[in-house]
Amino acid sequence: MGTFLFSWNPTKWPWKTYGQSVVEVSKGATVTKNMRCISYKNIKPGDRAFLTKVGTPPRGIIGSGTVTTLPFESPHKHAANKIVNLVTIQFDILLDAYKQPILTNDILKLGNLAAQNWSPQSSGISIRPALVGELEAVWEDFLIN
Fold first, then answer.
1. Cα distances (angstroms) measured from residue 40 to each of 11, 72, 128
2. Which of 141, 103, 129, 118 shows the shortest CA–CA distance to 48?
3. Alpha-carbon distance 107 to 56, whole Å?
């Protein structure tokens, strides 16, 4: 199973139902979102997904879930005649970056996790396998506290 980091910049890619999606996930409802994936040749259903908010602060991980589809092509929303690769993610956790604490990049830049780029230019990058266990532990600890 692979682990991938997807990025969301609200300024460039508005998510009109974001607040509603946060509430639904917190109630245990199934919430999915199609996300661009640069690692489309390596990703598959069942892979772990983390969502990081980039752009304006706060920046950091706001969600986690599971990839539920193989990559598929879709027209680019802002560039005519351009195709992008997407996957669908089903969220198990989705935090409201504007109302709740998030796992900030400051925390992610400590210790071994500093070896990973937590604010990638491209969405759907692979998280280094050697860091996955530590990331999962930090994420779980963050959510508990």
1. 24, 8, 16
2. 129
3. 17
Per-position pLDDT tens, the chain of length 145: 999 999 999 998 889 999 999 999 999 999 999 999 998 899 999 999 999 999 999 999 999 999 999 999 988 776 678 889 999 999 999 999 999 999 999 999 999 999 999 999 899 999 999 999 999 999 999 999 8
Output the CA–CA distances (angstroms, integers) from residue 144 to 97, 113, 138, in the order listed: 17, 19, 10
pTM for this model (two decimals): 0.95
CATH of residue 39's domain is: 3.10.590
Give dist(CA 135, CA 55) in Å, integer. Answer: 21
Are 109 and 138 contacting, i.e. CB atoms less than 8 angstroms apart? no
CA distances from 36 to 87, 99, 118, 125 (A): 7, 25, 16, 10
Nearest to 61 by CA among 104, 18, 115: 104
Number of domains composing the chain: 1
Domain containing residue 122: 3-144
77 burial via Cβ count (<10 Å: 0-12, 13-18, 19+): exposed
